[in-house]
Design a protein that fits this description.
- The chain is mainly alpha-helical.
- Among the domains are: 72 residues, no CATH class; 198 residues, no CATH class.
- It is 40% helix and 7% strand.
- The chain contains 15 helices and 9 strands.
- Helix 2 packs antiparallel against helix 4 and helix 13 crosses helix 15.
- The longest helix has 28 residues.
- The chain is globular.
- The protein starts with 8 loop residues before the first helix and ends with a helix.
- This is DUF3114 domain-containing protein.
- It comes from Liquorilactobacillus oeni DSM 19972.
- It holds the Pfam family DUF3114.
Amino acid sequence: MQDKNFTDIAALKNELLCAGWDEVACKVYIKSIRKQSISFTGHTTAITKNSFDKMCYLIGSELYTRMFKAAHFSPLQKLSLILNQLNAKIDVNGFLQISGEYRLDPAMPPHAYFLKYFRKLVQRAFLQKSLKDYVQNNGQTAKTAMKVHLLRSYIDKNNIEFVQQNFIGKNDFEKLLQYAKQAKIKLDYSTAANYHNRYLTNNRFFYPQNMKVQVTKSSRMSEFIVDLKDGHFVSEWQVYKYNTDGTVDSDPRHYNLQQSGEIANTESFNYGIPHGRYPSIFFCDNHSHYRLDVWHPVDPLIRNTITNRKNTYYWKTEKSYYWKTEKSYYVKDKEANYAGNYADVVKNGKRDYEAWRQVPDSKKAAVYLDFLEYCRRRLPLQNPGFAKYVKRIGN
């Protein structure tokens, strides 16, 4: 948008059209302006660029959401609209860089309607194959699929900052609990956190260092990874450096492998619906999580480098403690049919979290091995969480 005043509807409409909106979205915006008793006729009050920014440049805001939903575009076109407004470009290291005046609304919570709607658009735009398959087909759809995959990390960043900046607590987990309480939503801890407990191949896996928390209990859409020791978020965004122009420094040579655990174990916004303990109330095909989130295109070079199994040293994932059968929906997961030594200690939220934290660090490895065997003996029953294990051995 040019830095000028809008003195009539025609000028405003032209600016909106230049930003990629259609006639229907323009009508939604103009109607909203009129409701605020702001006139565009004659020489009455004008809309300045600054006030326009507040109402229209925040992706996910109430007004933006109304315009976005009303626009007569296909799901793929709506996804492209956001990417264009963010000036989203993939750099030489495969990292999505965004710039310009549009940005995600910092007041948008992790359970926001806009995120649900955006997620549904991704499911509809890429309905038949995995995101990885769409990227391999080349063409404009492939470019959009790749950028959509990479955009999820910016949604993660917005979610993390929303919780950290708007709630009070001794650590991030306490703030997350306060957010859930105030929003009157339930959190989910049921999906496995193997891929967020990677360890360097020159070390051993002793026990989980992090837990996964998803919003909400039924949709499991937004995701947070929490350090079990100090309750702080584990995120790539707490490691990244920035260039002088404000872009992310995506050169993997500028990051130490030993200090890149948060990049390896970072959170990931879910376009599909992960299979957790509780069924989703939203319609979605049974394989959406694997098509859109697991079988995804290549990650940026910085993360792909530190998690690549072809390297001598990399951040490795421990396999789950149970076996999977050929009938499982996990069958395309190359590691799915092998039992490992991983079991989540947190399955029921704060009570599991607190029970695990009460175990002295010097005893955690031994206690975890006994908990692991306890979980194996219970098969085919699910892992009940660490608090129930503690209660059992205490009786």
